[in-house]
Amino acid sequence: MRNPLQSNYDRLLEAALVEFGENGYEKASTAAICEHSGVSKGLLFFHFKSKSGLFFHILRGILDAMMQALPEPGTHNGSTFYETILTYERAKLAYVMERPREYLFLCEAFFNTPRRLSAEITALYNDLARVYWDVFTGLEAADGIDKKKVIELIAIVSRSLTQKYAHALLKEPDGMLRIDALLDEANEYFHILLLGVDKKS
């Protein structure tokens, strides 16, 4: 027998993911979330206590699931710096492209951070950044190359590409955009960044 509370719970999460992702925390409306989910405000606050409680429940759930899907720190097994970056970024892009709405939610949380939630969101972002840096522990870039700047540059490009792909995937009907083709395109960008554009003699 279906649990009606669980069904309501899932509908609330789905509606909130869209509302927060499209409008940001400040402009998101609990009334709109309830209207789109068909669930009363009473049940929303029963499950999540507050608008911020709902927001952080979704944010932590997305981060936990994404971290489980990515390569763990220290598992590069002798791979080069270049190979490790490509493996990690491809895994991250693949995860996000299967869940574009979750990524747009993360963008709103981390890059349009609501002031009243900034301390807690910043702490979560810093935890994520530490995991990202740990992936490259023990790996060295070429002589004269600042590894920190390389990783920061890759992160900037990755964020831009993923936002582009997430919006495209939401706009196109199912099947019109192939995720593997987008991943191959992203690989080309990373290849240019990491190996350069000069013709080899």
Give an overview in words.
With 201 residues, the chain is mostly helical. The protein folds into two domains: 1-49, Homeodomain-like (Arc Repressor Mutant, subunit A, Orthogonal Bundle); 52-195, Tetracycline Repressor, domain 2. The chain is built from nine helices and no strands. It has helices at 4-27, 30-37, 41-48, 51-69, 81-98, 100-111, 118-134, 147-171, 179-195. The longest helix is centred in the last third of the chain and has 25 residues, at 147-171. It is elongated, with a radius of gyration of 19 Å.
Give the termini distance in whole angstroms: 70 Å
- Please write the CATH class name of the largest domain: Mainly Alpha
Radius of gyration: 19 Å
Order of helices and strands: HHHHHHHHH
* Domains (count): 2
What about the largest sheet?
A: none
The name of the CATH architecture of the largest domain is Orthogonal Bundle
Tell me what portion of residues adopts beta-strand conformation: under 5%
How much helical structure, as a percent, in the residues?
Answer: over 70%
Overall pLDDT, averaged? 82
Alpha-beta classification: mainly alpha
Low-pLDDT runs of 5+ residues are: none
Count of separate DSSP helical elements: 9
The global form is elongated
Task: Tell me the total number of β-strands.
Answer: 0
Remind me, CATH topology of the largest domain?
Tetracycline Repressor, domain 2
